[in-house]
Structure prediction request, 286 residues.
Amino acid sequence: MSYAWGRLLAVPGRSWGVPLHTIAVLGAGKLGEVLLSGLLRAGWSPDRLIATARRPERAEELTRRYGIRVVDNETALLEADVVTVAVKPQDAGTLLADIGPKMPEGKLVVSLCAGLPTSFFAKHLPEGTPVVRVMTNTPALVDEAMTAISAGSHATAEHLSLAEEMFRPLGRTIRVPESQQDAVTALSGSGPAYFYFLVEAMTDAGILLGLPRQVAHDLIVQTAIGSAVMLRESGEHPVKLREAVTSPAGTTINAIRELENHGVRAALLAALEAARDRARELAAQS
Prediction:
């Protein structure tokens, strides 16, 4: 299928246009809803967005909230140019067994199923169906996601460009080989949870040091935001930025010594390896 871009919609305040393709999100749970809401914020017409949902009340909620149509899987397959699979990994096999024999030729399939390789989809879909694997994260809710995109064996550069147009409104996108996607899942997909865990611990530390909870929270959150912006915009290595805060015999170096004494660096390495291994287990169980 040729993805002619055709007319682009100009969106005030945005630096990209929106191609006139129809996208279906199969299993519009939390992640699927994030994608739908992001596309709408970017100027995508509700007429170009379709969703499916298991529960009638969920279907009514999506229609009421976003003005999109919620249909059955077969209708979604027929009408959409891009079929986005947004169900939980453990439910993907059942869904693909249902839609595989009904998939029309020439559709692009985009997978948001953590841990599942494109080869898993190829087993259920018609021969030659292009599949693009995507891993995004929850900051998509505030248009600050990091989304990694990988091509399956039948996906072309054109398919990757279309996937990027879908996810760019949610934040930043990057292309990676599919062999790196489990590492992406561990580092970026699960990454927000690590930062929230750190903020939680630092808030408790602030309370221990005598600060009110809200004051400690506000101090840490703004410090985290400022530090992240400096990392992104300065282009400096994190070691150099850390050293700029670390005076000889000062408070910061004493704190860092304790972090090293308690094996924080090693704990992070082990944690990310565990997340990567779990992603591989999900794939093996599918």
